[in-house]
Amino acid sequence: MLIFPAIDLRDGRVVRLVEGDYDRMTVYSDDPVATAESFRAAGATHLHMVDLDAARTGELRNLGCIERVVRESKLFVQVGGGGRDEDSVARYQGIGVSRVIIGSVAITRPGFLEEMAARYPGRIAAGVDARDGRIAIHGWRELTDVPALAFLRSLPRMGARVAVYTDIGRDGLLGGANIEAYREAYEIEGLDVIASGGVSSESDVTRLAALGVYGAIIGKALYAGKLDLRRAIKIGGIVQ
Known about the structure:
Number of domains: 1
Order of helices and strands: EEEHEHHEHEHHEEEHEHEHEHH
Mean pLDDT: 91
CATH class: Alpha Beta
CATH superfamily: Aldolase class I
CATH topology: TIM Barrel
Number of strands: 12
Helix content: 25-40%
Largest sheet: 8 strands, parallel, barrel
Strand order of the largest sheet: 1-4-5-6-7-10-11-12
Radius of gyration: 16 Å
Number of helices: 11
Low-confidence stretches: none
């Protein structure tokens, strides 16, 4: 199982939100490149980045910052938060982002997700954010009636073979991952699932790796010192 340490960006700074609430934000660093380098030094090969400004406004205000991280870290970088139209996806691809995550628009315009997956094979993922089993969109501010599991099952038919599945009710709370939700998602044929939200202990990493999920995103637990990245990477690599 791959471990994706997370960098969330707001105004060019590394921050973390609690349950996606912009008013509950902690700033951890003014230097995203240095943060990415520290992850690489700990053994990371993959990185998960979210442009929180783009998620809110649609403007790729942190594009230059993301480009520096991609160029200097040499990591596999996947980015979410701003992939809502052809231009933004192309701009991310143009700076060397390895995978663009399409979130809310994948729900509101599934044809767009299918088109981008065909245009950039292997370089598009769906971002599926859920609370109590239903999908939330527009920066987690709007809860839809769309069942998350049903939408996940539809993704392989649209050509989206990777899904970042976030339990937003657990994000940033250090309360543990929703293992049962990821067990159900893992069983979907043709879909690689990246677990996100609440991954905060070695036990979480061990249980997710044992399920066989493709990857796990770890954010606040790293910044708060609750989980050691080097250890998480080792566990993810050896648990079968």
